Amino acid sequence: CCCCNEVGCKPGADGDDSLYPIAVLIDELRNEDVQLRLNSIKKLSTIALALGVERTRTELLPFLTDTIYDEDEVLLALAEQLGNFTMLVGGPEYVHCLLPPLESLATVEETVVRDKAVESLRKISQEHSPVDLEVHFEPLVKRLASGDWFTSRTSACGLFSVCYPRVSSTVKAEIRQHFRTLCSDDTPMVRRAAASKLGEFAKVLELDYVKSDIISLFTALASDEQDSVRLLAVEACVSIATLLPQEDLESLVMPTLRQAAEDKSWRVRYMVADKFSETFVSLQISLCFNCIHSVLTIWLSDLCLLCPVSEQELVSDTNQHVKSALASVIMGLSTILGKDNTIEHLLPLFLAQLKDECPEVRLNIISNLDCVNEVIGIRQLSQSLLPAIVELAEDAKWRVRLAIIEYMPLLAGQLGVEFFDEKLNTLCMAWLIDHVYAIREAATCNLMKLVEKFGAEWAQNTIVPKVLGMANDPNYLHRMTTLFCINALSEACGQDITTKQMLPVVLKMSNDQVANVRFNVAKSLQKIGPVLDSNALQTEVKPVLEKLATDTDMDVKYFAQEAISDANVEQRLVQQAAFIFPADQTCCSLAGSQDRSEQRNTVVSITACNLMNSRIACTNPSQTVSFPNFFQPDLHAPVHSLFSAATQIEFDQTNE
Amino acid sequence: MSAISASEKVDGFTRKSMRKAQKQRKSQGSSQYRTQSAPVELSPLPQLKDAPSTEQQELFTQKLQQCCMLFDFLDSVMDLKSKEIKRATLNELVDYVSTNRGVLVESTYPEITNMICTNIFRTLPPSDNPDFDPEEDEPTLEASWPHIQLVYEFLLRFLENPDFQPSIAKRHIDQKFVLQLLELFDSEDPRERDFLKTILHRIYGKFLGLRAFIRKQINNIFLRFIYETEHFNGVAELLEILGSIINGFALPLKAEHKQFLMKVLIPLHTAKGLALFHAQLAYCVVQFLEKDPTLTEPVIRGLLKFWPKTCSQKEVMFLGEIEEILDVIEPTQFKKIQEPLFKQISKCVANPHFQVAERALYFWNNEYILSLIEENIDKVLPIMFGSLYRISKEHWNPTIVALVYNVLKTLMEMNCTLFDELTSSYKAERQREKKKEQERDELWKKLDELRLSSAALVQNNSHGLPSVQNNNNNNNNNNSSNNNDNQDTRAEAAAVPTDNKVPDAGVAASESTPCAK
Question: A50–B447: do the CB atoms touch at under 8 Å?
Fold first, then answer.
């Protein structure tokens, strides 16, 4: 109660500074407020420090062991702290003092606490000498492994592998026996824990025991009555396969794996599909070429089993998880199999999967098209591809739509402009008025990439009129899409189209009744400014921006002013450039140039050169870079590298 | 992507309901893995009632076998004729076992259970909606329900038939059968879970040998639900069955049952979806307490341990459960838990969420609870007073303030002198708390200083250390393990500043680092 706390506090406050009575510290650990208790536990190392190693061992640890009943959050913090406590109890020779509290923590119900306690136990197990490991640690593992309640037995599963390599052979035999027992435990929770540690345990075992013990456990767990156990066994398969010599794989692992691929539970089949490539890789590494072929044949037959080609065998949509996992891995197989095998074995599967009713399956196939393209070329697939694409483009899930948009530029590049105009263009335009913003945004970006691919002329004929037409749409979201498209397209379309066709539309929209549209006009003008010529900028853009800067809406005002000041800064920089390099012809002529994108490049490169020169001059005057050497009128790419070079030099400088 | 509607013109956004309607609702199939090839077309068999009694048995078996054929319900037009034949046959079978006597001869048991197993036991499909929220979303219904429903119906009639003999059936309705049945409780379809509930109840009633097994497996399901998956659709149904099972427990309660209460039912309160089964859970808990009142203290302490910290909705449920428990509590038990309990109630009363505060304040409308409080007013009032007094001045919600005034008035009437004392000492109490807070701060400050000064001490004393640390030739040391080593050696040096200890620490560090990964 509060009165006791009161009394308990006093000696600490007035008493001896160097010696903190444990009562005070423990009082803090007992505080009624969970948050305060938690704080104290988190500073447990400070408390231990104050007490010294001796009293930490004799007073603090027994206290912690006895008062394990607390909120899980506090216990979690305690379990974590104790993992780093070795030095605070006097180093490795005393590390076993930490075992009792951690043992109790490893038996609590809450999984996170238990897991953390096991993690700490694993950590400090390494600090035990081999003798201590057998005298103190291993008995603890045994006690946990034969505990009454399932929690201690689950915890034990995670501790076998850390002590096994460092104990005598008699103790090793006992550990193996305990692991065996837990693998056939009564409660599924323990069997799951054992199954999940099977691979890890196999790695520390001698090869003979892997063959005799692990394989039989693996087989037993893989045919457990609970699918949650079986699927964990499948997971362990990957590490077991890497341990065995190749000649044993076929007889020891493959039957179980094949059985798992045909399991009646979709969860198990899913796991097989999911681990497919991993297992495949581990099998491939350990097998010579001939074996690869036989394994492949097996896998392919399994594959056919899992993704049936014929209509009649089509598995119901419920194992879509399995199918979509497979879809994502089998595309990768084509590179391993080579052209002939791909056409013979995989192409029918791809085609069947492109018709699958589940969008994820189709999407996984389409999104991995590039692998197949490398091997057999996309033309083989294009006829089947189109209906799949069209359907995915209209899928009810927006993430599916988003994913297919992202593959549009790739597809457009591979299928060619005619095919695209004929079949896909309408889709790309429809996305612009999708009800999900992310789709509209992606559609905008997609248009930009398409223009980069097919050129400005194509854009002018096919895209620009439609985009500009949307400026009159009654839905303001669609009107804004026009602006976003213009932002994205202006650079790719070039000065002419931007000034003559896009700018008038943008300017007209500055009178829109929706404020969101108006401030986006201001933002757009700022964005496309560099593409416009100075004349248009001064005579058309400036007045509109100034008008917007007096808008009644706060946001419109703000963005208009931003745009104006941005334009001004640029203007000044250009003039400054001419001032810094008066002797440089290119520079001066560019500064007076009407092409605003050239001007901007000038500015950027000048600033970069300037920066570099001033830096280089400090260290090595002879290396000063002269501006024209660096400068090329078309500086799209180099500008970036210039800047990074300049900043790198600056960075080196500061470091010195 | 559809034409723009009037509502869109107003705010540009489509209504969520409209978009939902656009989504084509796909019905969910079972995940029955079809190892068999396409179903063979069924041909109708003669009616059982028309067959001569000598042939009825044979015909019954044939019909059972016919019903083992499974159909794809995802495709609603496929095998229409055969589906209809199976449906009619199942109907006839249901009728046959529920109205006739003497039809359940021993030889039919394997056929019957085989038909049932083939039809209902399947791995449940993954949810159609990956983030299915049972409280919000419509459940996905089982597509093959037209058949499965009749099979369940048949199973129920079979179990309820007066001729049904558990001694014969137990060879077929065994542990494996029950295990598969229990797994089906995860079905998203509430109709299916409802059938399963009645069926499991019957099995529990008729098969004494399976009782312990059933309880243990339900245990496992709950534990997996609480600590592993946090997902199981049939928790409420299983709890409902348990409610009646607990009711029948003999006294004194076995240790196994008490363990179930403390290690399973109480932790079930931590589940995210508590709202879905709280009523059934609270019923089970109260059943236990009515059986054995001595369990009250551990139960209430358990609830206090898992008291929700951020979820107001759950907090209201906990308060409801506490009230249910208080309704049946014995006065001696009340005395044992009043302090921790009222500390929590006092926090709830002061909760800024008015529903929580309101629910807690409603306790004072309960006559029995009032009588318990009155009996122990000298203990309860000092705990409650601070919060009530503060809330009466500070709470934003006028209803709460009004309720608090009433509660204060009731408490004042119970013990006027104590109330006056507490009122006058309220300020001094606050002062004392503040002072205590300061003292705590100072304590920790001093401890931190100690840590700092010992760090300085190490730096002064550390001339011997570098060479030792150089022995540590593990180059793969990452930063964090380095830091730990430094910290630990620092601690070591501060605590035991004798020189001969230091090399030990170094050796330990070099020994421990390779394994730290």
Answer: yes
**Among A2, A91, A477, beta carbon nearest to B12:** A477
Contact B464, B499 (CB under 8 A): yes
pLDDT at residue A17 tops 50: no
Cα of A429 to nearest chain B Cα, Å: 10
Question: Domain residues of chain A, as ranges?
Answer: 245-392, 469-564, 578-656
For residue B26, what is the nearest residue in chain A, using CA coordinates? A317
Integer Cα distance of B515 and A163 in angstroms: 12
**Residues of chain B contacting residue A430, judged by C-beta atoms under 8 Å apart:** 1
Integer Cα distance of A146 and B76 in angstroms: 54
Minimal-distance CA residue of chain A relative to B18: A435
Closest residue of A to B126, CA-based?
A318
Kindly state the tokens that stand for A61.
Answer: 């640890």
- CA end-to-end span of chain B: 54
**Distance between CA atoms of residues A384 and A538, nearest Å:** 53
- Over chain A, what is the mean pLDDT? 74
Which is nearest to A185 in space by CA: A237, A138, A232, A220? A220
CATH class of A469-564: mainly alpha
User: How much is the mean pLDDT over chain B?
Assistant: 79
| Burial B69-78, CB ≥16 within 10 A → b, else e | bbbbbbeeee
Q: For residue A259, count CB atoms less than 10 angstroms from its CB and return exposed for 0-12, middle for 13-18, buried for 19 or more.
A: middle
pLDDT in tens, A539-587: 888 888 888 888 888 888 888 888 887 766 655 555 555 454 444 444 4
Q: Which of A74, A114, A115, A122 is nearest to A98 (CA)?
A: A122
ipTM above 0.90, yes or no: no
CB atoms within 10 A of CB A619: 11
Structure tokens at A32: 């009624």
Give the closest residue to B337 by CA, choosing from B368, B304, B367: B304
The tokens for A52 are 């010294």
Return the residue matching tokens 């964990």.
A232
Report the pLDDT value the prediction gives residue B197, as an integer from 0 to 100.
95
* A123 shares contact with chain B (CB less than 8 Å): yes
* Separation of CA A533 from chain center: 43
What is the CA A637 to chain-centroid distance, rounded? 29
Q: Long-range CB contacts (< 8 A, 24+ apart) of B343-350? A: B343/A32, B343/B383, B344/B304, B344/B307, B345/B319, B345/B384, B346/B383, B346/B384, B346/B386, B346/B387, B346/B388, B347/B387, B348/B315, B348/B319, B349/B384, B349/B387, B349/B388, B349/B391, B349/B404, B349/B407, B350/B387, B350/B390, B350/B391, B350/B395
Nearest to A408 by CA among A366, A378, A376, A438: A366
Least confident interval from A239-243, A353-357, B272-276, B277-281:
A353-357
Option in A5, A187, A434 nearest B220 (CB): A187
Q: Does residue A200 contact residue A166 with C-beta atoms inside 8 Å? A: no
Of the candidates A9, A88, A434, the beta carbon closest to that of B491 is on: A88
**pLDDT tens digits, residue range A375-429?**
666 666 666 677 777 877 887 778 878 888 888 887 787 777 887 887 788 888 8
Q: Å from B272 to nearest chain A CA? A: 15
Rounded Cα–Cα distance for residues A446 and A430 (Å): 12
Distance in Å, alpha carbon of B269 to nearest chain A alpha carbon: 13
Measured CA to CA, the distance from residue B422 to residue B424 in angstroms comes to 5
Kindly report the nearest CA distance between residue B467 and chain A, in angstroms. 19
Q: Which of A595-599, A614-618, A650-654 has the highest mean pLDDT?
A: A595-599
**Residues of chain B contacting A477 with CB distance shorter than 8 Å:** 12-13
Interface contact A312-B38, CB threshold 8 A: yes
For residues A398 and A439, the answer to whether their CB atoms sit within 8 Å is yes
In this structure, what DSSP letter does residue A595 have?
A: B
Q: What is the pLDDT of residues A198-230, one digit of tens each?
A: 989 998 988 888 888 889 999 999 989 888 899
